[in-house]
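#dry-run=false #mode=assembly
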Amino acid sequence: MSYEALARRWRPRRFEDMLGQEHVLRALTNALDQDRLHHAYLFTGTRGVGKTTIARIFAKSLNCEKGVSSTPCGECSACTQVDDGRFLDLIEVDAASRTGVDDTRELLDNVAYAPSSGRYKVYLIDEVHMFSKSSFNALLKTLEEPPPHVKFLLATTDPQRLPITVLSRCLQFNLKELPDQSLRPYLSSLLDKEKVSYEALAIAHVAQAADGSVRDALSLLDQAIAYGQGKITAPEVEAMLGRFSPSRLYDVLDAVSADNAEQVFKQVEELAAYVPDYSYVLGELLALLHQVATVQTIGNAHQGDVHDEARLQGFAKNISPQDVQLWYQIGLTGRRDMPYAPNQRQALEMTLIRMLAFKPFTAQASAPVPSQPKSAQTAPSVAASVSVPPREQAAKAPVAKAPVARTPAARKAPPAAPSVQATQATAEPAVAEEEAAPELPPADINWKPSDWVKIVEELPVAGMPLQLARHCVLHSAAKDQVHLELDPEYDTLAAPRSKERLREKMSVYANGTVNLKISIASETPANTPAMLEKKAEQDRLEAARTSIAEDPLVAEIVAKFDAEVSTGSIRPVDDADQQEP
Ligand SMILES: [Zn+2]
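#status=ok
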């Protein structure tokens, strides 16, 4: 199948088509149009935010046959060669794979030669911090006396690892991660052009999972299109990413604020069906609590999206600001300690139980008192210092016992001094923070390549790291060393952050610190979890088609009504079941 990845097809070809990075683009545009070009630029920032794209447009701007400007024609041979990735005077180097001084010397030896067809040679050196010391020295020599026909574009995710001598010779720009709010309309407009139908919530999930990277967003969209067979729906993206509708979080908060333990467990049970990343679930619940607090303080949720305005307003009215603050603190602590819990779902449940335990004391105070000044409502500590016992008294209370004190019997008792409870609870996370997080010892594992599908199913991982794992095969795993091979078609999944998150989750799974190496396989492996799943899907579809074709009743209908079986409409039955959970 010759499907061209979205990221490749929609790579911006002009500065004005780029998403975000306005500050960088303005500086480059001005420099180009006013002929005030520096010879070396350093772009810092995470992956997938546009470094290579900027470099390519910059190379066109410098070499367009119509002249140097920020608006290259896009039609001359220089422009089209750059667009096709075959312009000889744009030299792209991945420093991560060229760390030897010989490599660099060979590269920089050629700097002296005139461009082969263009006006300027443009060197894009990505991940430049990976250069060895001697490579840096070789680079530095060139940067000190650059030939006039050479421009350097250096890019790094880790500028602190660059020698100051190199830094001082570059004009530095920080590329920003793209916020959800600008990614979403971009993705939507792109799908419109692709004539792919989609649900807004599905796009919101993708934008959020991409975590600021356009490239990741587009690679997730590619997968969503393949997954949904041309149509992108929220439930399918949720299943793909291990996400769920935000309304489920509202349901959880509903249950907590109603002090309904049974309902809380039921909600967690339903969430578990999505095999979510529980740390993500708790993070989203914290974000929701933050929105509630913001509405209570300034009347609206000043940032982020509100999934359900009416319900949010309801929470703001019915939950006391003290409870919101408390639950936020409890959630924060719970989330931080999650990696050390034996089981992630259990950790989420424990955190919610804690929130429940704190609930009844302030239940009566839950309707905001109109005359109370807003500033006193924002934090329990403020409320405490205004109205009730001094902090020292609260601090003396046995901190560790705080949640235990709320036995069911005690919970029914009238609130003796709500603010004391509130202050105790906020003191608890502060104390816990002083304890160093326990380091896991090195893992001692012995996984066979054939175990990999099962391991991926059981890994407590979602989003990009899950996709990364799904497109890998296990090459070897012994003691604390794990070596995966990634399907080369999905090499964009191997972003450092995804890899690190996968490593962390593997360590949790292995109950010991794992060292993870991921190399790109030389050819597409046939047995990645993603490939096996796809094949199983096709087999089931084939089996369904065969059974239809051999079904005597169908044959009879076909004969009697001169009918035709529309094979495209056949879906295995259990497949249809899965789509309606
Ligand atoms: Zn041109």
